[in-house]
Amino acid sequence: xxxxxxxxxxxxxxxxxxxxxxxxxxxxxxxxxxxxxxxxxxxxxxxxxxxxxxxxxxxxxxxxxxxxxxxxxxxxxxxxxxxxxxxxxxxxxxxxxxxxxxxxxxxxxxxxxxxxxxxxxxxxxxxxxxxxxxxxxxxxxxxxxxxxxxxxxxxxxxxxxxxxxxxxxxxxxxxxxxxxxxxxxxxxxxxxxxxxxxxxxxxxxxxxxxxxxxx
Length: 215
Description:
Blueprint: E1 6-11, H1 26-37, E2 42-45, H2 64-69, E3 79-84, H3 87-91, H4 96-101, H5 113-123, E4 126-130, H6 138-142, H7 145-159, E5 166-168, H8 197-212
Parallel strand pairs: 1-2, 1-3, 3-4, 4-5
Helix pairs in contact: 1-8
């Protein structure tokens, strides 16, 4: 038996803190402040670079979920998984149905945000689900990212409760989640995709509140 709650993250390069100082990304900011009231909380950053071509795959070695689930323990007081993924998949032109449900081309079994959430909950995790943030890089623009993001995020907002235990709608975070917020150099890097330290500071309190609601 372990009285230390675990908070693990399944995400892409944003969660991996690309363009931010490692300890100042939102996963570690959240851990530091969670420990003020939950001193034994553990953090496990299992984010990887993302699966832009093959999609979000919930099964198979080296995928984000595969790595994150290794840390689950039924004897732990609480296991929380934060899921913040899908940006690379949309930016590379994957259909919204595939990103959400794993259906349609490329049709890889076990793919999609909802199947990922469902698999985590079936194992025993409490799931915090995030919407997909903005990006204005050339690849995303060429593949119609923003229009696809609207469809996916609206679907997540309407249906999250069937697949997750808490929801973070990043669209409501000023200077972080709105259309073209990624153009703001005060919060995003020059690649127009990744938040810098100040951007992570904007999202962290909202993610931390969602985690706390499950502890």
